[in-house]
Amino acid sequence: RVSSSASLLNGTILMGEGAKVDCAVARTNDGTIERVNVVTNGEQSTARATVAGMVGLNHGTIYRCTSSLPVYGATPTTQTDGNGSYTGFVGGIAAVSVAPDGTSMAAIDGCMVNAAVNGAATIKGGGIAGYATGRVSNNTFEYGITINQGGVNFKNIFAEAGAADLRAYGNGWPTTAVNPINAASPETNPNKY
User: Fold this and answer.
1) pLDDT tens-digit profile of 29-78?
2) 3-state DSSP helix/strand/coil percent for the chain, to nearest 5?
3) Are 63 and 55 in contact (CB under 8 A)?
4) How far is CA 79 from the centre of its chain?
5) DSSP state letter for 136
6) pLDDT tens column, 90-128
7) Which terminal residue of the chain, N or C, has fewer Cβ atoms less than 10 Å from its own Cβ?
């Protein structure tokens, strides 16, 4: 756990061949994770995460981080905080990114994922986050969702948005798959998700 008073800055986490973790950095981030890179031994590495490339539950800030760790959720896991439970989400950076209370905003900004994010039929996933509120901005999912994944459970930036304030903009991905959210309005920035 990265506590609210903690910062994890400037580092590289190398996932060894065959490594299998739920999250490479922490199960919960309440603080700041900045310029941390999660890498594998190469494109053919068998290392993988089962929940997220970096953290399962993000309440804090994740800034300018990268992950090349593939994520595959075989069975639904639950991320729980004081606001509720979130089951069956996986993400390239965070499975769930939500504000812990009404006074702060979770943020994932300027991050890049260059690995597959996938899962079983009961899993929902996003290239950056599975479920998001708060700010998800200026991120790139270089790997992209594939045609075989379909657009119902897997999206390029986030799979599902909460009812709370969501500020998603400046995100990019290389595929032509759309990534709409349920309540898109005419004034919505077309590159927000």
Assistant:
1) 999 999 999 999 877 789 999 999 999 999 999 999 999 999 999 988 88
2) 0, 50, 50
3) no
4) 13
5) E
6) 999 999 999 877 667 899 999 999 999 999 888 999 999
7) N
pTM: 0.89
181: nearest Cα among 173, 167, 91? 167
Q: And the tokens for 134?
A: 């708060």
**pLDDT tens string 12-24:** 999 999 999 999 9
Question: What distances in angstroms separate CA 178 from CA 102, 112, 159, one per listed residue?
Answer: 31, 19, 11
**Whole-angstrom distance, CA of residue 26 vs CA of residue 56:** 7
Residue 78: CB atoms within 10 A of its CB come to 13
Q: Which two tokens stand for residue 167?
A: 């500020």
Task: Centre a 10 Å sphere on the Cβ of residue 21 and count the other Cβ atoms it contains.
Answer: 17
Cα–Cα distance for residue pair 44/137, rounded to 1 Å: 30
CB within 8 Å of 179: residues ≥ 6 apart: 145, 151, 155, 156, 157, 158, 173, 193
Count Cβ atoms within 10 A of the Cβ of residue 150 and give its class: 0-12 exposed, 13-18 middle, 19 or more buried.
exposed
Task: Return d(Cα 40, Cα 28) in angstroms, integer.
Answer: 22
